[in-house]
Specification:
single chain; 207 residues; five-stranded antiparallel beta sheet
Length: 207
């Protein structure tokens, strides 16, 4: 990413998830993600999602893609068709060379412009800071830092953590960090925080 676009940290737009999107798991709303990427990996734990917006048709996703003016990666489109946003469990991932972070919510395609609607959140994300061309805001952490999905080469398909609060600004002034080469890899990287693991349980490192 070029240094001119994501340099200046700004206050987050969503300091906490909106009240109508409290990420409390519910047995009816929790959706398992392990099936959605079209392949099976032994002993791999995939996140479940609560407060998801439910499956939508390929036509709905394609229409949103056209309105957004980007070409979405195939695995992310599959996520929108099958899970369509929500609050993941587990939530923790690692920002390389910085430390652990949490995924609070991923946006979905909704029938109305409101919190966590993918198109609405692009408008909100650019109120104070312009997004780099070809980058899409797809979710945020509990402090409002944004997850960006690259849709233009050479970074197409990669996921970035945009540190909008300025806690991890790099030496060159940039505040966006690559966290996964694909959206699928980002989903696979979500894991339990050490304090959430059962006492005496061995770390789950299986892939």
């Amino acid at each position: 990413m070029s240094s001119g676009t994501l340099e200046a940290p700004n206050p987050a737009l969503h300091l906490t998830p909106p009240s109508d999107l409290r990420c409390v798991a519910h047995s009816i709303l929790a959706v398992q993600v392990s099936f959605m990427f079209g392949r099976r990996r032994a002993r791999l734990r995939m996140p479940t999602f609560s407060r998801s917006y439910g499956p939508v048709s390929a036509a709905v996703v394609n229409a949103a893609e056209k309105r957004l003016g980007v070409r979405l990666p195939a695995d992310y489109k599959r996520f929108l068709r099958t899970i369509n946003g929500g609050c993941p469990d587990p939530q923790e991932f690692v920002v390389p060379n910085r430390g652990p972070a949490l995924a609070a919510i991923f946006y979905g395609v909704r029938s109305e412009r409101t919190h966590a609607d993918l198109e609405y959140e692009q408008e909100q994300a650019t109120l104070w800071d312009p997004l780099p061309p070809g980058f899409l805001a797809i979710g945020h952490d509990p402090g409002g830092n944004t997850f960006l999905l690259a849709t233009f080469a050479p970074d197409a398909g990669r996921v970035f953590f945009w540190d909008r609060n300025g806690l991890w600004v790099r030496e060159d002034g940039r505040n966006a960090f690559p966290v996964a080469d694909t959206f699928t890899a980002f989903m696979e990287s979500l894991h339990e925080s050490p304090q959430d693991a059962e006492p005496g349980a061995a770390p789950d490192t299986a892939i």
